[in-house]
Amino acid sequence: MNISLSPIELNLEGFHQNLRREGTPDRVYFFEHGVADNLQESLNEQFQIWKNIDPGTPTAEWDRAIATHRFLGHEYFRVFPEGARLVAPRHHGEWTHQGKGVISNREEFEAYPWPDPENADLSVLDYYEDALPADMRVFHVVDLWEVVRDMMGFETICFAMFENPELVEALFRKAGTFLEAVIARCLKYECYGAVYLADDLGYKTSLMISPGQIRQFILPWHKKLADLTHKHGKFFFFHSCGQIYSIIDEYIDYVRIDAKHSFEENVLSVEGVKKRYGNRMTLLGGMDVDALARWDPDSIRQKTTQILEVCQPGGGYFLGVGNWVTSYIPLENYLAMLQAGREFLLR
Hints:
Blueprint: H1 12-19, E1 29-30, H2 37-47, H3 60-72, E2 76-78, H4 106-111, H5 123-131, E3 137-142, H6 145-152, H7 154-163, H8 165-186, E4 192-198, H9 211-231, E5 235-239, H10 248-255, E6 259-261, H11 270-277, E7 282-284, H12 289-294, H13 297-311, E8 317-319, H14 331-343
Parallel strand pairs: 1-8, 2-3, 3-4, 4-5, 5-6, 6-7, 7-8
Helix pairs in contact: 6-7, 7-8, 8-9, 9-10, 13-14
C-alpha cells in the first residue's frame, strides 16, 4: 500500500517559536531522534528522493541526509561526526558488560586510552556550514551517564558509588570534560543548532539509581553542558527513557532543558506528559514504537490525531516516534503517522 505525502515548506523560525512554546503553531512540526538506514532506503525506493544525488561523490551520504530530512519535514536532523562521542568498549561488537567493565579501579582508569577531543572529525559540520539550506540545522548525540556506566559495568558502578565515589567522580569528570571540549567546537558552527544529550536514567517503573546519586554525580555535569550550550545561543535537548518524572523538575528548572525526548505508553504517554508539564517543557516525539511496529495504518492515523489534539494547542510539541524510527517499523506505518500529521494542518 503506497501512501502519498504532501510536501512541507520548512520554516526554521516557526520551528524555534514552537520550541519556545510561543503559541499554537500554524502547522505540525516534526522531529526524530534518528531514522534507520533501511527505512531511509525504502523511502528513496518509493519516492526517489535521492535521484539527483551522484552516489560517487565524497559528500553523497551527507547530501542524502539533507534530501531525506527535507522530505520528512525536519528542520533539525542528526549527524554523526566521527570521534565526537565517547563509546565504551563493546562485547561482540554490540553489547557492554553489565557486571564488570574495563574500569573498576584507579590503575585501570589511568591506563585507559582516553581519546583526545581535538581528534574528533567535524568534517560533516565543515561541509554543512556551506551546503546546508538556510532553513535547516543539525545536532549530534552525546551521552555521559551511559558512557560512565558502561565503562565500569552497571553492577560495579552501583557498588563504587558507595565504596569508591572518588573514582566515579573522576570518570564523570573525564567523560564530561571530553564532551565539554567537543561540544564547544561544535557550537561554533552556525549550522549546528542543538546539543542532544541522551542519557537513559530510568526503567519502566523507577530510576536506575537514586535521585541523590543523580544529583551528586550526573546533574552538575548535565547543567554544565546545558549552560555552555545556552551561552552560545543554541538549544539543549534531553533524551531519557524510563520513569524519570520524580526528578524532571530539576531538569526543567535547574538544568534548563529546552525540550525532552523519549516517551513510552507503559511509563507515561506523551499526552499525559503534555497535561502535566506542557506549559514548562517542550516535547519531542511520542508515538509509541510498539504501536508503530504492530498496529495497522488506520489505527496509527487515529492515534496520531489523538496525540495532536492534546499536544498541539499552545505549542511546544513536535510529532515523531517515542524513541527512534527503528528498522522493524513498517514503512507504511511510519508514513501513516506522517500523513496524519500533515492532514492535521487542515483541521
